């Protein structure tokens, strides 16, 4: 077990009473013990962030660059250790945990660079003798609320641009994954952030998160999580007239056309639907397959699923780790049962697995003969469960792909330039993939979706600036 991890408020590590998190691959293994903040500490963190804002927002690019670059370098140097901790607390495989940690380092590196690339505009006024300057300023105190499924990358892609653009932060990570959150804050704190600039408040969403939503001193909230919580963030933010950004669920379609390269399509489906135990907002949970390739595709996918190694996340051979906790495991099983009740066929998997240690192991499940109207095809399951929906042709595939309350990612496997181009233009999703899994994105380009998946400006890359800055237009009369 790690040492007792405290919250960081105004540059001090504080907190005594705590909660434990356990390893989903081995429920007897306690990963660590963590302080649990209450409403009062959340208030102190917000006050500290507010007090630190004037100096940090005027600190200039070099100070911010130094901290972000140092953090990037330390995360990269410790990628194996941090990646292992992540896999141990969340259940994704060791390779995925290390990969995500490298991603976090790359994000800090990118935003270190962004501090030196800030720009503004000087434009002539329509009035003689007047000049106009357009600049960007920090927004203020930013509340950052994150989910459990990317314990280091999501905090990184919110904290890094917030700091780069001169904001101060109150960070509330998901209860299930405090170790990765604590580590990233510890690294940034030691990298030289002034006190109060970044505050960590681990604790319950309904307490600490809610206190952030209710505070008039939080000027912006960046949230990633479920649709239900996202709506609360939105309602509270409108009440306070604050800026907010939501990244929520997905029910992402992967279309497979008759002319697809079968091996590519099966690779995309296997990776997109089941890797990271299907616990990705970008997972391919609806496989929409045209009649001519349907049976060959299902047979080939089942063959590959049979070979998947499901086991302890820390075991080097493991390809699919456990589900994150008992609640999520039950949700996955419930949705498989709902799909079957509604008329789908459980063509593969779906049962719990026993391994050397007690854990939340589930054999990835494939529902075939599903329709797009079934609850299992419309609601986010967030586990290693995919539904195959049979369609006649491309036009029906596109219509089914777009017939969803979500719009995060979508994909198509085809060798037809015409269909690939048409799909890119007509898919109602924020991110579209051709002959690639729906999950797996670059860190230097915009991330986000449409409809029930996202609200507000995009995250990541240069586009992150839209959320973490506010535009000022200044006029000067010089005679
Ligand atoms: P969740 O909504 O339960 O929790 C997200 C965060 O909100 C947690 O930190 C939680 O403590 C906090 N929270 C809970 N109640 C709150 C309240 N009343 N006020 C303020 N904060 C509160 O989501 P989760 O189960 O942690 O994550 C899974 C969800 O996240 C899935 O729906 C998934 O699709 C989504 N997700 C989306 C993206 C994306 O970018 N679109 C990425 C990853 C995960």
Automatic annotation (TrEMBL):
Q: Which CDD domains match?
A: ALDH_KGSADH-YcbD
Pfam family example for this protein?
Answer: Aldedh
**Active-site residues per Swiss-Prot or TrEMBL entry:** 247
* Domain (Aldehyde dehydrogenase) ranges: 20-473
Q: Which UniProt keywords apply?
A: Oxidation, Oxidoreductase
Q: Which InterPro entries match?
A: Ald_DH/histidinol_DH, Ald_DH_C, Ald_DH_CS_CYS, Ald_DH_CS_GLU, Ald_DH_N, Aldehyde_DH_dom
Which branch of life, at top level? Bacteria
**Gene Ontology molecular function, alphabetical:** oxidoreductase activity, acting on the aldehyde or oxo group of donors, NAD or NADP as acceptor
* Protein family according to the UniProt entry: Belongs to the aldehyde dehydrogenase family.
Q: What is this protein called?
A: NAD-dependent aldehyde dehydrogenase
What broad taxonomic lineage does this protein's source fall under? Answer: Bacteria, Pseudomonadati, Pseudomonadota, Alphaproteobacteria, Hyphomicrobiales
């Amino acid at each position: 077990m790690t040492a007792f991890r405290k919250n960081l408020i105004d540059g001090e590590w504080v907190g005594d009473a705590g909660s434990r998190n356990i390893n989903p691959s081995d429920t007897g293994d306690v990963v660590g013990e963590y302080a649990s903040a209450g409403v009062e500490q959340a208030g102190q963190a917000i006050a500290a962030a507010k007090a630190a804002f004037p100096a940090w927002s005027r600190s200039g690019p070099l100070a911010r660059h130094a901290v972000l670059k140092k953090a990037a370098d330390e995360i990269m140097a410790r990628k194996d250790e941090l990646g292992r901790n992540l896999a141990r607390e969340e259940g994704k495989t060791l390779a995925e945990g290390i990969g995500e940690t490298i991603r976090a380092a790359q994000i800090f590196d990118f935003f270190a660079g962004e501090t030196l690339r800030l720009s503004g505009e000087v434009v002539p006024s329509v009035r003689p003798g007047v000049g106009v300057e357009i600049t960007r300023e920090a927004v203020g105190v930013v509340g950052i609320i994150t989910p459990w499924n990317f314990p280091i990358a999501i905090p990184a892609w919110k904290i890094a641009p917030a700091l780069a653009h001169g904001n101060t932060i109150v960070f509330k990570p998901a209860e299930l994954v405090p170790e990765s959150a604590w580590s990233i804050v510890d690294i940034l704190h030691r990298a030289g952030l002034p006190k109060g600039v970044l505050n960590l408040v681990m604790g319950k969403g309904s307490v600490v998160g809610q206190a952030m939503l209710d505070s008039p001193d939080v000027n912006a909230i960046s949230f990633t999580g479920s649709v239900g919580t996202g709506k609360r963030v939105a309602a509270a933010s409108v009440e306070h007239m604050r800026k907010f950004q939501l990244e929520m669920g997905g029910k992402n379609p992967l279309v497979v056309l008759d002319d697809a390269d079968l091996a590519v399509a099966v690779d995309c489906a296997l990776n997109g639907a089941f890797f990271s135990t299907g616990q990705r907002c970008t997972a391919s949970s609806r496989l929409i397959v045209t009649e001519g390739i349907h049976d060959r595709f299902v047979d080939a996918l089942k063959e590959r699923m049979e070979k998947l190694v499901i086991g302890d996340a820390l075991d080097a051979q493991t390809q699919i780790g456990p589900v994150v906790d008992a609640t999520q495991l039950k949700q996955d099983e419930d949705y498989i049962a709902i799909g079957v009740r509604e008329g789908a066929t459980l063509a593969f998997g779906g049962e719990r697995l026993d391994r050397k240690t007690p854990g939340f192991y589930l054999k990835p499940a494939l529902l075939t003969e599903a329709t797009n109207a079934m609850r299992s095809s419309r609601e986010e399951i967030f586990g290693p469960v995919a539904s195959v929906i049979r369609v006649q042709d491309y036009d029906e595939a596109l219509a089914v792909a777009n017939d969803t309350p979500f719009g995060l990612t979508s994909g198509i496997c085809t060798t037809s330039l015409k269909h690939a181009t048409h799909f890119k233009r007509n898919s109602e999703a924020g991110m579209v993939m051709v002959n690639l899994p729906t999950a797996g994105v670059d860190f230097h380009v915009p991330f986000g979706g449409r409809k029930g998946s996202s609200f507000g400006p995009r995250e990541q890359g240069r586009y992150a600036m839209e959320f973490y800055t506010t535009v000022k237009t200044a006029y000067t009369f010089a005679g």
